[in-house]
Design goal:
Blueprint: E1 3-7, H1 12-23, E2 27-32, H2 40-50, E3 56-60, H3 66-76, E4 80-83, H4 92-95, H5 97-117, E5 122-128, H6 152-171, E6 175-180, E7 183-184, H7 193-202, E8 207-209, E9 216-217, E10 220-221, H8 222-233, E11 257-262, E12 268-269, H9 270-281, E13 287-289, H10 305-311, H11 319-334
Parallel strand pairs: 1-2, 1-4, 2-3, 4-5, 5-6, 6-11, 7-10, 8-13
Antiparallel strand pairs: 9-12
Length: 336
């Protein structure tokens, strides 16, 4: 029986990932610090779905706790690691930068060290589409340069990829980074647009629409994200025998290192996303149009050719279907 250490287990993607791993008989060691970045009761509700499951154990612990994480690796000796814990959010990084250094850099180092010293077979970790930063060449490809992040959050995610490569190169640790594109769906985060919009519309409040609605996002349904995570988890990164250090490709290496986009490859205008939500709710939103926020980008779009070639999977859930499934969950969970 494979034992997987899963950080961020009480998070949005973490809970869904844990359920999939448990359903196929894996042993899952969940880690989460249950911080109050958003409503802790939602995290407890997610965790309540996991704790009764055979094969699941939980540790309330911050990944930046160096000694605590070292003890955890020594105690549990996981076969593989899926690292989803992080300080999330672009806008929050403008006012709380230290939280990102602590969780996303120190925390990731603790994960890498645990993997290194305990013979972990494969580290799969969450990166982000935000690493593409000021790049305007769409769709975003793993072969593109990512040297121009426009938020500290994005910079920490790029740093994670660089740190992972170092450990793959020095210690032969297979690492795979997954650049998630605007994930949404049931049990989603309350700081994300879909959750904020839904709550405001049902309460009769205006919704804030940034860049005057001129935004495009590659909205990706959570089930598709989890399918990608699981398939990559099952196929450890390997060195690229054709890697040319004289003309290095950012997507691969002569070390066991890979990065992949996971996105729907169907970039959707923000106003169409809102229209899908209005249809699902049966209500029209009052819209408060605002300028672009600092650290944001006008458009994202994922090229998932490499993911498809590696694990034979391409996300494809239509936005209208995914939004309707979120609304059904939201109404049921909050009884509205």
């Amino acid at each position: 029986m494979t034992k997987t250490l899963l950080t961020g287990a009480a998070g949005f993607i973490g809970m869904h990932t844990a359920l999939r791993l448990l359903a196929r008989g894996e042993q899952v060691v969940g880690v989460d610090n249950l911080n109050d970045y958003y409503d802790v009761s939602l995290k407890h509700a997610r965790l309540a779905r996991l704790t009764p499951q055979p094969g699941f154990s939980f540790h309330q612990l911050s990944v930046e706790d160096r000694d605590g994480m070292a003890r955890l690796f020594e105690q549990e000796e996981p076969d593989r690691v899926i690292h989803l814990a992080a300080q999330a959010g672009v806008r929050y990084s403008l006012t709380n930068p230290h939280a990102y250094i602590d969780a996303n850099l120190q925390g990731f180092l603790n994960i890498l060290e645990g993997c290194r010293h305990h013979g972990v077979q494969h580290l799969t970790y969450a990166s982000s589409s935000s690493v593409y930063g000021g790049n305007t060449a769409l769709p975003f490809s793993e072969h593109h340069n990512i040297d121009h992040p426009v938020s500290l959050y994005a910079a920490t995610k790029k740093a994670n990829e660089l740190m992972a490569h170092t450990y793959s190169h020095l210690f032969g640790l297979p690492t795979t980074g997954l650049r998630f594109f605007t994930v949404y769906g049931p049990w989603g985060r309350p700081d994300m647009a879909l959750f904020l919009f839904t709550r405001a519309i049902l309460e009769g409040r205006p919704i804030d629409v940034f860049n005057h609605g001129q935004m495009v996002r590659d909205f990706t349904f959570v089930d598709d994200i989890v399918e990608g995570v699981i398939r990559v988890h099952d196929k450890p990164a390997a060195p690229n025998p054709g890697f040319d250090p004289a003309a290095p490709d950012p997507a691969t290496s002569n070390a066991p290192y890979r990065v992949f986009n996971i996105g729907n490859s169907q970039p959707t205008p923000l106003m169409d996303y809102i229209a899908a939500l209005e249809t699902a709710l049966g209500r029209e939103a009052v819209k408060n149009y605002l300028p672009m926020q600092a650290g944001d980008v006008p458009a994202t779009s994922a090229d998932t050719t490499e993911l498809d070639a590696w694990v034979g999977f391409k996300p494809a859930t239509p936005v209208r279907e995914g939004v309707a499934r979120f609304v059904k969950w939201y109404r049921g969970f909050y009884r509205v």
